[in-house]
Amino acid sequence: MSGLNEQKPQVNRNIPGMNRRERFVEVQHAENAGETVKRIVNYFTHEKKLVIGMLAVVVF
Asked: What does R_g of the chain's alpha carbons equal in angstroms?
């Protein structure tokens, strides 16, 4: 029964980068969605090659 007088520590539920005042601001959209998608695909294509290369080094 030693735990009766002890208080549990409070959990910090703050999310880094969360701004409560700007939670419901209007969403910004890309002016040219096609070019944006191309940039994202290009970025992940490069990252995909890097991850596969690192996996190959670790496994083999």
From this structure: 23
In angstroms, the Cα distances linking 31 to 35, 39, 41, 57 are: 9, 14, 17, 40
Please state the domain extents for the chain. Answer: 33-60
- Sign of the torsion formed by the C-alpha atoms of 49, 51, 52 and 56: positive
- Tell me if 30 sits within 8 A of 36, measured CB to CB: yes
Per-residue pLDDT of 39-58, as tens digits, reads: 888 887 878 888 888 889 99
Q: What is the pLDDT of residues 21-39, one digit of tens each?
A: 666 777 778 889 899 999 8
Alpha-carbon distance 32 to 5, whole Å? 61
